[in-house]
Amino acid sequence: MQVTSRHFKDGAHEALQDKDIQTAFSKVKTGFSVARAARVEELPEFEDLRDTAVDIKNHVIENLDYYLEYFEDQVLLQGGKVHWCNSYAEARDAVLKICRDADAKTVTKGKSMITEEMALNDFLSENNIEPIETDLGEYIIQLAHEYPSHIIAPALHKTKEQVSDLFHVKHQEYGLTERQTDPQALVNEARSVLREKYVAADVGITGANFLIAETGSTVIVTNEGNGDLTQSLPKTHIAVASIEKIVPTLEDASTLMRLLARSATGQEMSVYTTFSTGPKRKDDIDGPANFHVILLDSGRSELIGTDKQDLLRCLKCGACMNHCPVYQAVGGHSYGWVYPGPIGAALNPQMVGLEEARHLPNASTFCGRCEEVCPVRIPLPKIMRHWREKSFETQVTPKPERWGIGLWAFFAKRPALYRLVTRCGAMALRLLAGKKGRLKSLPMMKGWTSVRDLPAPQGKTFMDQWKQQKRGNS
């Protein structure tokens, strides 16, 4: 997919003016986050599980080479194949070769963020293979020629009315001419279209929430069951996963799954949890004849041993964005790449380059809610702060911003001068504001005053009030 992160400000401005997006994302505040809080309250050991999950993931990262090789050995023992890929191009080519070997004309796909990274759908289409998204959210945005705005709810930016209009136009060719408005009727309509696609598909492609080293299994969690059909009906199943998805044992995967659904959708457990271990055996009723796992690095290994290594713990649950006030205001597309919200602000500069994604780490109030709710305790504000510092040090930040920060730092290092300038600045703003007590515009403050007035400082400075309170207490 095309990277547009450098246009974050423009995208955010457009999203703030878009009534449909604002309507759709208003539900985030009272949906996933409220459900998560309720499920966490029901589980007294939730915080202990988080600590255990951190230990599991840290252990895996420290021994990643061992567990990946062990996983490959188990996949081979089960009759499957593993393809090691350093780059998106290698992974795409590996998928294409498997599809061509299967003489595939159509491919069904389960929801997968890693294939979004690879821009796999466009690549397959360019090579005359039709990819068909089977997750309802992914199916909707595929029809609309858009990309996901949320990790677990790809079509979160769409209203019911927009989906109704979309289906009414796109499903005419299937003889479905009546415009549906009821949510269940819309689901049934999509299901009727997709059912034939499952049966006709030559290859099924899924992602993987976990890769289990001890058994060579891939695990997907879904709420629709589309993943089961995608990987069991076609003759060939391809699981595409990034290398950090590995976990040592089934027990470790179970621990992480207790956190995943609660953090993502506020469920005790996702409706479907599917384990795939190799191709169909002699006595199996159904299943693929061929089983392939694409292991993709794409810069992940470069994070190991750095101060951004904690990002490799991510379960892709979306809890950070569900609780982020910035994401809730501007939506997912503003971030301009696969991962929006706080995880995108921390990860995307690594994946697409700091120069391209420099706005994203600044799209945060540093309220800390993202770290507070992260099931594996990723210090997202700390990582975003790192990118801000890196942007300044490497002069990716524009000169006016660097000069402004440098000027502030000059005064901040001289407390007495800082307090004097602060008092003078507060007095000047009060004089400019006059009786109204607010300013409609101010040089270098257009980002604020373009949408709201700037209140003039009232009363004494914080330091003066602090001294006064200390004298009163003594």
TrEMBL record:
UniProt keywords, alphabetically: 4Fe-4S, Electron transport, Iron, Iron-sulfur, Metal-binding, Repeat, Transport
Entries under InterPro entries matching the protein: 4Fe4S_Fe-S-bd, 4Fe4S_Fe_S_CS, FTHF_cligase-like_sf, Helical_ferredxn, LUD_dom, LutB/LldF, LutB_C, NagB/RpiA_transferase-like
Annotated 4Fe-4S ferredoxin-type domain residues: 305-335
Top-level taxon of origin: Bacteria
Keyword Metal-binding attached: yes
Database matches in Pfam families: Fer4_8, LUD_dom, LutB_C
Gene3D superfamilies assigned to the protein according to its UniProt record, in alphabetical order: Alpha-helical ferredoxin, NagB/RpiA/CoA transferase-like
PANTHER family in the record: LACTATE UTILIZATION PROTEIN B
Designated name of the protein: LutB/LldF family L-lactate oxidation iron-sulfur protein
Source organism of this protein record: Sneathiella marina
